[in-house]
């Protein structure tokens, strides 16, 4: 599987000089690699500046992070990203009215089995490898898809029918409830989006497009036309969802492809203000650290 070392030409991470904790525009400093140890359950504090690798969507890491080379658990991020991508892709096509499909019943199976269960398991494995962000995001979206399946299971949990019965047969209460549900996920996704501002462009865009999809879908169900969801907003939300799905697949491929199974590595663009971007602009010099590791 691909790692941040393969994508960023670094093996050991960064360790800050304890005598100088701030950067100067013309004063590049050297950070020595540090062997963190072999505990796969170790929690990596996001604010800790030692032994960090640059942000990498293939590992579902939005910022500098530790890589435990001795871990016996494979990288679970591509699995979770793929589960999220496929389920989102199918539902978004339905939201766009593809092939005149108007009901999301087929998504229920994917929501329970792949987007839900498999993504939830990937989130739990992210917790085992010490990735707090990955565990929170993948587990939460796995829960989202399970909740989606519960809501739309035909005749199963009777959530839709009970809300319509309480509203004397109208869909108003159900659509309002669904809108609130989606607004909540918009807020949660925005919180995660803030944590990707120092990551890679593809990783940031994944959460940005997903956040826009949640927002537009929520607006579409809340701002109705003649009692029906606003079609334009629903289709726009579906379009953003499709883009988010392909970005999730892109990040998943970046985590899967390596020099052992692919003729090329997936390009990963870092923001200029990220650690990798600052290094390329000469604010951080890690050449000697890499040379010492034989990279």
Q: Keywords, please?
A:
single chain, 295 residues, mainly alpha, 10 helices, two-stranded parallel ribbon
Backbone CA Rg: 22 Å
Poorly predicted residue ranges: 9-49
Using the alpha-carbon principal axes, give the shape. elongated
The helix-and-strand class reads mainly alpha
Write down how many β-strands occur, each being a DSSP E stretch of 2 or more residues.
2
Listing every helix as H and every strand as E from the N terminus to the C terminus, the arrangement reads HEHHHHHHHHEH
Would you tell me the overall average pLDDT?
80
Largest sheet descriptor: 2 strands, parallel
Q: How do the strands of the widest beta sheet line up side by side?
A: 1-2
Separation, N- and C-terminal Cα atoms: 18 Å
Question: Could you walk me through the main structural features you see in this protein, from its secondary elements to its overall organization?
Answer:
- This protein is an all-alpha fold and 295 residues long.
- It has 10 helices and 2 strands; from the N terminus they run H-E-H-H-H-H-H-H-H-H-E-H.
- The protein has a two-stranded parallel sheet with strand order 1-2.
- It is elongated, with a radius of gyration of 22 Å.
- The two termini are 18 Å apart.
- Mean pLDDT is 80; it is low at 9-49.
Architecture blueprint of SSEs:
Elements lengths: L3 H5 L20 E2 L46 H19 L9 H24 L3 H21 L6 H8 L5 H23 L6 H22 L8 H26 L18 H6 L3 E2 L1 H6 L3
Could you provide a short overview of the structure?
The protein has helices spanning 4-8, 77-95, 105-128, 132-152, 159-166, 172-194, 201-222, 231-256, 275-280, 287-292, and strands spanning 29-30, 284-285. It is mainly alpha-helical.
């Amino acid at each position: 599987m691909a790692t941040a070392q393969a994508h960023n030409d670094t093996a050991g991470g960064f360790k800050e000089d304890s005598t100088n904790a701030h950067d100067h525009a013309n004063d590049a400093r050297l950070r020595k690699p540090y062997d963190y140890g072999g505990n796969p359950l170790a929690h990596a504090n996001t604010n800790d500046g030692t032994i960090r690798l640059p942000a990498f969507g293939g590992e579902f890491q939005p910022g500098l992070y530790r890589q435990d080379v001795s871990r016996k658990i494979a990288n679970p991020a591509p699995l979770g990203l793929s589960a999220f991508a496929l389920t989102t892709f199918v539902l978004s096509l339905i939201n766009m009215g593809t092939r005149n499909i108007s009901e999301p019943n087929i998504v229920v199976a994917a929501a329970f089995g792949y987007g839900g269960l498999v993504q939830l398991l990937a989130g739990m494995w992210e917790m085992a490898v010490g990735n707090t962000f990955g565990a929170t995001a993948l587990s939460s979206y796995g829960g989202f898809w399970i909740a989606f399946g519960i809501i739309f299971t035909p005749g199963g949990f009777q959530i839709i029918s009970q809300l319509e019965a309480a509203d004397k047969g109208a869909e108003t209460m159900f659509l309002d409830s669904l809108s609130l549900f989606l607004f909540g996920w918009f807020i949660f996704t925005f919180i995660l989006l803030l944590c990707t501002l120092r990551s890679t462009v593809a990783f940031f865009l994944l959460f940005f497009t997903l956040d826009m999809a949640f927002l537009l879908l929520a607006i579409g169900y809340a701002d109705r036309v003649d009692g029906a969801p606003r079609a334009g907003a629903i289709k726009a939300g579906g379009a953003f969802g499709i883009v988010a799905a392909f970005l999730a697949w892109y990040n998943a491929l970046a985590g899967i492809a390596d020099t052992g199974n692919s003729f090329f590595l997936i390009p990963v663009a870092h923001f200029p203000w990220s650690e990798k971007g600052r290094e390329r602009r000469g604010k951080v010099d890690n050449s000697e650290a890499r040379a010492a590791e034989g990279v």
